[in-house]
Amino acid sequence: MTSPNRLRLGWIGLGSMGMAMATNLQKHLSKTSSPSLVYHNRTMSRGDALQDLGANPSASVADLASNADIIFLSLSDDSALDSVISSLSGPGCAADMSGKIVVDTSTVHPDTTAAAHQRLTNVGAKFVAAPVFGASPVAAEGQLLFILAGPDDAVQALEPFLVGVMARSAIRLGEDVTKSSLLKTAGNFVTAGMMEVVAEAHVFAEKTGLGNEAMEALLEQQYGPLAYSMSRRLTTGAYMPPPGERPWSDLNLAIKDVGHGISAASATGVRLHVGEVAIRHLNEARTRDRPLDSSSMYGVLREEAGLDFATNLIKNRDNVQ
């Protein structure tokens, strides 16, 4: 096996998550005197800061594939993944994909993952499904949780670039790539359900006069770091980012993710009742004319209780009365 220090790595997709992960990866490559990361994005200017760190832009997906042994993908949805896989595996791809490893960190439906695996296998490439848990600030800190499924040798080749670089830990699920997407889908359902409960608890605290500060203290000390971090997204106003700022975790992607969970469950005769409640509130939040975070069901729940969608903190921050 090629030494990790000599492997050529590529990155496709520089949204908030992809940019954070690719940045940490390029810093690691520089520190270990390894070949620089090559990257491609639909809007190439998104990679300017990455280029400043030493990464090299690639004009096309095929060009990147020709200059990388391991290709990481971080894409917004199933159609974006399908498009990139077509570029990597279709007859128009100029790169020889034999022996290359394609690692998909995107959150997509298990059926989409299965199709990507089959198409890449047909051209001699190895596919690893590697969706991640954690919003963009967690990605920036290199503290994501990776869910890995794919050929053992391909997963082993990735390990030097995960824990301590982009990840705090990784869960291995064997070679069936659909299992990785299924676990990520299930996890997204749990996350959305917990956020729904935390948001409802805060509305309850405000309307009863108990107060958000007391509720947040309880969530931190009784229910742990995850519940507390969700609470902070509400009490700091992150659920409704300032105009012009990107959300920690995009509302539209959350709707897509929870929808995948409901669909996958329905296919096996299971109904995710809490997921249905969460996605209804998320869809109601989407009617606002500004980018919102996946925690923005809080604003909808506030309105249902007779409060304004925006807290006083947000109104003062944005100079809106």
List the helices and strands and how they pair.
Blueprint (H helix, E strand, L loop, with lengths): L8 E4 L3 H16 L6 E3 L7 H5 L3 E2 L3 H6 L3 E4 L4 H12 L11 E4 L5 H13 L3 E4 L2 E2 L2 H5 L3 E5 L3 H7 L8 E6 L4 H32 L3 H24 L15 H16 L6 H13 L11 H8 L7 H6 L4
Parallel strand pairs: 1-2, 1-4, 2-3, 4-5, 5-6, 8-9
Antiparallel strand pairs: 7-8
Helix pairs in contact: 4-5, 5-8, 8-9, 8-10, 8-11, 8-12, 10-11, 11-12
InterPro entries: 6-PGluconate_DH-like_C_sf, 6PGD_dom2, 6PGDH_NADP-bd, HIBADH-like_NADP-bd, HIBADH-related, HIBADH-related_NP60_sf, NAD(P)-bd_dom_sf
Keywords: NAD, Oxidoreductase
Pfam family, one: NAD_binding_11
Structure summarized in a few sentences:
With 321 residues, the protein is an alpha/beta fold.
Q: Kindly estimate the percentage of residues that lie in beta strands according to DSSP.
A: 5-15%
Quote the average pLDDT: 95
Shape type: globular
Secondary-structure content class: alpha/beta
Helix content: 40-55%
Poorly predicted ranges: none
In total, the number of strands is: 9
What is the oligomer described by this structure? single chain
For the sheet with most strands, the description reads: 6 strands, parallel
Figure out the total of helices: 13
Order of helical and strand elements: EHEHEHEHEHEEHEHEHHHHHH
Q: What topology, given as strand order, has the largest sheet?
A: 3-2-1-4-5-6
User: How far apart, in Å, are the first and last alpha carbons?
Assistant: 62 Å
The gyration radius over C-alpha positions equals 21 Å
